[in-house]
Amino acid sequence: MALNFRIFHQQKRDNLHLSLSGDFDGSSALELINTLNEHRCKVKKIVIHTSRLSSLHPFGLSVFRKRCANNGLSHALAFPGKYSRQMAFEKSQFTDSPENRM
Question: Which residue among 2, 7, 32, 86 has the highest number of C-beta atoms inside a 10 angstrom radius?
């Protein structure tokens, strides 16, 4: 895992906000997947904030997308921030609307 990668989380009603910080590599992607799996039954929507990421490694992105697709996680995710378009799935939200701010 990237030594500087962190996930900060905050729950607001039925929404979970995850703020990613540092470098997003393959191990970081697995940590994010584990966090999503841990919380997905507790909330309706998960907002993954990407503005604090320093870098997005292609391998990390690939691991994240494959695991989300296999676990059926992609439908409940929104991605505001710097890397929103790269991380977002076809049906997920990637705009920085006020309700998506942490």
Answer: 32
Q: In what order do the strands lie in the sheet with 15-24?
A: 6-12, 15-24, 45-56, 77-78
pLDDT means per 10 residues, the chain with 102 residues, are 87 93 96 92 92 96 89 83 87 52 52
Structural domains present in the chain: 6-100 (3.30.750.24)
CA-to-CA distance for 45 and 49, rounded, in angstroms?
A: 13
State the SS3 of 5-61.
Answer: CEEEEEEECCEEEEEEEEEECHHHHHHHHHHHHHHCCCCCEEEEEEEEEEEECHHHH
Query: CA Rg, the chain, in Å?
Result: 12
Q: What's this model's pTM, rounded to 2 decimal places?
A: 0.85
